[in-house]
Please model this.
Amino acid sequence: MTFQQAQSLSGAVRKGECGTKVVKAGQSVHGDDKPEGGDEGGEADGPKVRRWLKAYTVFNCDQIDGLPERYRTPEAEPPPLPERLEAADRFFANIPAKVTHGGDRAFYRISADDIHMPAFELFRDAEHHAATLAHELIHWTRHPSRLDRDFGRKAFGDEGYAKEECVAELGAAYVGALLGLRPDHIEDHAAYLASWLKVLKDDKRFIFTAASHAQRAADLLESYQTAEAAQLGAAA
Model:
């Protein structure tokens, strides 16, 4: 609303707030006009339409204090948190990777050997969280102290990068199958893989190499579960 409209509703635009310029277009119709020099019996030209533009400065209601309650947007109820997957949480907890939560991006940083993940509640559901974490954990296995996987990656989007992404996504699909994630995740993995395989158009057989690396990476993640089970058995 404009400054004057806010005042008419006993509202006051807060000091320092900036308005937004809007332009209103309209038209007005005027009655019959007589032709110039014509007499009373002359033919009329008919109604005339005049078009106009008018600029206004308007403010969002959130920039104005004292408005009636009907102009306030009620705060939306926060959506329910996705339910945790106990099997997935247990699987990931057994892997000795350093995982930091925060921000809005998921990535593995080899220089610090750590994984960054968005907060759990930012994911559509627990299965998407699990699939994303599995992808980053497959990257985690490439570290020299683990599988020492290196495709000559130099920059984002190059051939080495594409090869590593193919391995990570295939590995995430293997882990998803192990955890019993919904089949619709397979389509997500397939679409992501297809985008990176375009980069590898000169290496038609790399998908088989990627599958082999992905299986070794998934096996490494699964080995931490076997180690925990063995320790539990020994303690019993």
